[in-house]
Amino acid sequence: MKRLSILLVCMVLAAPVVADPAFAQLIPPGGSKFNPPLPAPPPSPRIEVPVIPQMDAPPRQSYAPAPSPSFSDRITTCLEEGAAGGLGPSDREAYSRSCANR
Asked: Do the domain assignments include residue 80?
C-alpha cells in the first residue's frame, strides 16, 4: 500500500509538468501556426473634464500687447490710406515711406 501511495503522489506531481508542453501546441480553429499573435490593443484615450466657468469669478483677461505689424503690412496700410485720401502715385510713395517709418 505504501508503494502505491508513493506512486500515486509521483504521478499527480508529474502530470502538470508533462501536460504543459501539449497546451502550447494548440492552434485555434481557422488559425495557422505561422500567423503571429495579434498586437495588444492601443491604450484608451484620456478623457478630461472641461473647466466650468464660475458665476462669481472675475473674467480672466490677457494683458499681453497685440503683436506689432510687419514693415510690409505697414507699407500696404499706408499705401491704401494714401489711395483712399486721393493721393497720386508719386505722392503715395512719399506718404507711405514717411507713414511706415513712424
From this structure: yes
Residue 91 lies in a domain: yes
33-58: string of b/e by CB count within 10 Å (b at 16+)?
eeeeeeeeeeeeeeeeeeeeeeeeee
pTM for the whole structure = 0.38
Residue 90 is assigned to a structural domain of this protein: yes
Split into its structural domains, the chain has a count of 1
Residue 85 lies in a domain: yes
Digits of tens for pLDDT over the chain (102 positions)? Answer: 677 677 667 676 666 655 545 555 666 677 677 777 788 999 999 999 988 888 888 877 878 888 899 999 999 999 999 999 999 999 999 999 899 888
Name 81's Cβ contacts closer than 8 Å, sequence gap at least 6: 95, 99
